[in-house]
Design brief:
The structure is a single chain. The chain has helices at about 10-25, 30-35, 45-75, 80-90, 95-105, 110-120, 125-150. By secondary structure, it is an all-alpha fold. The chain has one domain. Helix 3 packs across helix 6, helix 3 runs antiparallel to helix 7 and helix 5 runs parallel beside helix 7.
């Protein structure tokens, strides 16, 4: 059992729906998190919910990354544009990781597009995964805890 207050099916359902929301952007991950957060009362459950939602999102984003990666390998670069972006990435790895982190935390630029671009230009997968996962946990924790903070439940 994951928690004394929330049943495991809620975390598993959130995880599964988060995978779908990562692949199909019209399924909003934040709405999913807020919906499940409304069922929970303990702050520990909300933190765990944020981790499960982020894990589901990242599983879906990993699939998108690999789609972009394969597309980048198969793409015939006639005008050299893709290779120029790869060179820029090699010279600015920290800025690229920062962009992924910001994208996954605040959503600008959209993480869906950032993920595909990261795969296409060949960003190191481990760096992408770490930066995006940290950002997603922060984002979903903020979303899960915000209704309780607004209503004054977590004093």
């Amino acid at each position: 059992m994951l928690s004394a207050a929330a049943p495991a099916w809620q975390f598993a359902s959130c995880f599964g729906l988060s995978i779908v929301s990562a692949l199909l952007p019209w399924f909003n991950g934040e709405v999913i998190v807020v919906s499940f957060a409304a069922l929970m009362r303990a702050p520990a459950d909300l933190a765990l919910l944020a981790v499960f939602a982020a894990a589901g999102q990242m599983l879906g984003k990993c699939l998108l990354y690999w789609v972009g990666f394969r597309a980048g390998r198969l793409h015939v670069d006639r005008n050299g544009r893709l290779e120029r972006w790869r060179e820029r990435l090699r010279g600015r790895r920290l800025q690229a990781l920062g962009l992924v982190f910001v994208s996954s935390t605040i959503g600008i630029p959209p993480l869906y597009l950032t993920t595909l671009a990261a795969g296409t230009v060949g960003m190191r997968f481990s760096g992408f995964l770490g930066a995006a996962a940290c950002g997603r946990v922060i984002r979903f924790a903020a979303v899960a805890f915000s209704p309780g903070l607004v209503l004054g439940l977590w004093r």
